[in-house]
């Protein structure tokens, strides 16, 4: 699981209170189950409960808190990705003796092999998670061999065996004053108090107790006691770690120092993309998640529909270009709210891809039901484990963007594009329309996108300054061609919903068929340029479109590839994005449009996270 909240504590206060308060601060990260473990007496007291943290607290009231009297403990709020959000999959997980407890954030990619190894050794696992394997492996290492009786060495040994991303916090009832935590590609910070030490996935968990913190590096392990901490690498050598002082207030801390969740989520896009791609290329092949569709099913497909709403629909429009190009299958992209009312032609050889961040959107759910009634096969692309849409679909591919709190979709949108592309590559692979080395190359190019998006985030200050200038505009138009067209639609949608400003996205070629009448002096027009190398013909056509609107006095804001000098004379404002393959351009060119909309909204004094009249999950038709 990814983007869970983790807290660990050793000190002088009742650990249960400290841990629960920390979890409350982290609940925004994941909230489909929660659990705590406290080292008390010579054992471990553990309670776990599906649902929100309040359910766990009610459960603790029911069983009584007396058994949780110790001053060392840990807790977890979960955002499930492996295993449904039920009590037995909640963290902490224990080994069979109940003396080791583990909480985990991340995805252990080789967990199937580790699980098989444990089962072969007669260990009975009690959950469907990847995380539980760690508890058993640590317990076995602690019980035997060179690492016997040495918790840090046991954890190090296990960490070296894990593939994937993880933050782990581990305790053993034999050493009640010590907590060991480890990280690889998932966040972990240490908080240093007076006679107490904390570990957490986020400083928000301990900021009310201390502002002195230490950030751990990649593949590092920290041992915390009430007297301090020690950082080691996975081989037991002392490792450098970065101390810092937290200067945010509490509410900023929950938002990672950002003013709004949406800005934090925009910043998280490289991670959301990397996490969505992680583990989907193994043994030279694209692998999907719960793919209850065989390769034969994918070969039988003769038409693809993407059904979705809002931004998710735009992710489908982007994917159409790639899926048709890679598979030579016709792809129709349809608003879910229209789909079932027009008697679409569906049969068992139709693949319907239902894209939904929440997995609860009523229109999309009804479209799924309609498609299944017509015997079409439905693959859900979803960000929420166990939601209704994946539950009612034949197969599911999860986007691992983590919880999106801002109502306007940002990181989930980018993750949806990446996931839709994985569907396209899986189809191309099964149908043989791409050679294995071509599929590998496409995946490799996708894998470079988190870095490209990170570079785009470097232009945020320029775009924000522009946003402030545009805050009084009456309207903004967005133009694009090819994959830039859905990007224009997405840019306009973001601006409408956040800044309550009239905004329209157009295919630039349509301009002369009507919309050009809207152009008047000073009207801001955002143009999403294709690559001058990758799409030379389209590029020159768009340059003509820009000169047409410039001639009529529009203010041109151009998003173009770095080094695209031909477009410079036509741009009143030029926002450069890294050069990437054409089909991947939406992943970089959308980002400045998100930032622009958020900044215009902020300058107008609106609540960026909660725009008026909107809800995060639209569960009515
Ligand atoms: C726009 C936005 C909405 C959603 C749409 C679908 O920023 O967030 O347009 O994309 O309501 O929601 P899901 O993906 O949850 O089905």
UniProtKB/TrEMBL annotation:
Q: Which Pfam families match?
A: GATase_6, SIS
Query: Where can this protein be found?
Result: Cytoplasm
Write the record's keywords in alphabetical order, separated by commas. Answer: Aminotransferase, Cytoplasm, Glutamine amidotransferase, Repeat, Transferase
Catalytic activity, EC:
2.6.1.16
Keyword hit for Repeat: yes
* Domain Glutamine amidotransferase type-2: from-to ranges: 4-227
Catalytic residues as annotated in Swiss-Prot or TrEMBL: 4, 616
Question: Where is it mostly found?
Answer: cytoplasm
Domain SIS residues, every copy: 294-433, 466-611
Instruction: Report the domain of life of the source organism.
Output: Bacteria
Q: Name one GO cellular component term.
A: cytosol
The reaction(s) annotated as catalysed by this protein in its Swiss-Prot or TrEMBL entry are: D-fructose 6-phosphate + L-glutamine = D-glucosamine 6-phosphate + L-glutamate
Gene Ontology terms for molecular function: carbohydrate derivative binding; glutamine-fructose-6-phosphate transaminase (isomerizing) activity
List the GO biological process terms: amino sugar biosynthetic process; carbohydrate metabolic process; fructose 6-phosphate metabolic process; protein N-linked glycosylation; UDP-N-acetylglucosamine metabolic process
**Described purpose of this protein according to its UniProt entry:** Catalyzes the first step in hexosamine metabolism, converting fructose-6P into glucosamine-6P using glutamine as a nitrogen source.
**Known partners and oligomeric status:** Homodimer.
Task: Give the protein's recorded name.
Answer: Glutamine--fructose-6-phosphate aminotransferase [isomerizing]
Record gene name: glmS
